[in-house]
Design a protein that fits this description.
It contains nine helices and ten strands. By secondary structure, it is α/β, with parallel strands linked by helices. Strands 6-7-8-3-9-10 form a six-stranded mixed beta sheet, with helices on both faces. The protein has a four-stranded antiparallel beta sheet with strand order 2-1-4-5, with helices on one face. The protein binds adenosine-5'-diphosphate and magnesium ion (MG).
Amino acid sequence: MTNEHSRPTGALIVADRVHKSYTAGSSTVDILHDVSLTVSEGEVCAIMGPSGSGKSTLMYCLAGLERPTGGDVALLGRSLAQCSRKQLAELRRAELGFVFQSYNLMPTLSVFENVALPFRLRGERVDRARIEEALSSVGLSGRGSSQPSSMSGGEQQRVAIARVLAQRPRIVFADEPTGALDSRSGRLVLSELRRIGGAPGQCVLIVTHDPAVAASCDRVVFMRDGRLVDQISNPTTASVASLLAALEARSETAVEEAA
Ligand code: ADP
Ligand code: MG
């Protein structure tokens, strides 16, 4: 199964000097400054940093949802700069999973149909067993006919995770996935993400504000003002919290926001 071309070094995400700026009228704002980052198979990596430091923008660039204005991203050995819009969409559908703080469930569809939606959008046969298995792994077996609107936030996020699990993506991007959840649902969502990330040939990247969430990851990288400024391997809640506090004290964006 190993394809030397698609997986040269076990590095699944390689960001090489990713730069992102936005232009409005005559002014240009630089959001990301030459960010380089590698995430390897079997790894769960957290991104932390003050609000406005560029975490979401980085994740969107890494996931091919935004085009960097400089540098490049390679996913599974493929340069995104060299992918057409169509190839990017195909790569996202086939290999990537997304979990956001807002669950992005379709309110008019049942739980089962929400998890089945990616299959239907591709015009594929719906794999019932795979959907049931995904629902059961997030503790929602037998809930397929429920409506999302009748569920708690934690349950809805678990549906969103089941939708990702059923697709068996190789890379999962999660932006504040536990931000709106009670601690029990948060732990369940996190343990599923860890299970995905720990599997051979797969990895997970999580943006989080929560030092306890970050401490359960293999590595934490820290951003400030659009730059990667530090990282901790084998993090603990205490080591993460103290580094984050130091960054927040020094962040330009945080100071501006507070002013
Ligand atoms: P974080 O996720 O760390 O809170 P973001 O990546 O959302 O930070 O935003 C980083 C900075 O980029 C912020 O100052 C934000 O206002 C700015 N930004 C994000 N998206 C855009 C955009 N589409 N146009 C202009 N500025 C943007
Ligand atoms: Mg964000």
